[in-house]
Please model this.
Amino acid sequence: MNDIEIRPARPHELDTIEGLLKTVNLPLFGAADFLDTFWIAENRGDVAGCVGLEVYDDAGLLRSAVVTEEMRGTGLGGRLTLHVIDAARELGIRDLYLFTMDKGPFFEHMGFDKCTMDDFSEDGRKSTQWRMVNEHPEVAEVLSTMRMRLPQAS
Model:
């Protein structure tokens, strides 16, 4: 794990990010719009994972957290998640949300709490994912919504 560097994604890496997302059936939409708040985990020159953050004023959406099959179980997912939490805090985000199908226990371990669609702040409801899930209740039935309240610097 010492050889892994988490760094900002580069514009030419959108295809790489989308390829990673496809391997675990995560949504591709919006990735290009938020590429400036995506990070790549690089292991000795090879992409080992990625994670993204959508920023909506004082709300954020953690998205697209994925590690390659070879890196699963190494703690890299946790490192990527902590990286986004730190970035969100630095950006002044108060509420960090996410949607997940089956990784709820992992994100609870990372400090997120289950919430409902109604618990999203006005800024959190600006996310494309929130709007899509809100408009398609059948999708909401298979997703868990989660939130982390971030303390603000004094």
About this structure: The radius of gyration is 15 Å. The chain has a mean pLDDT of 93.
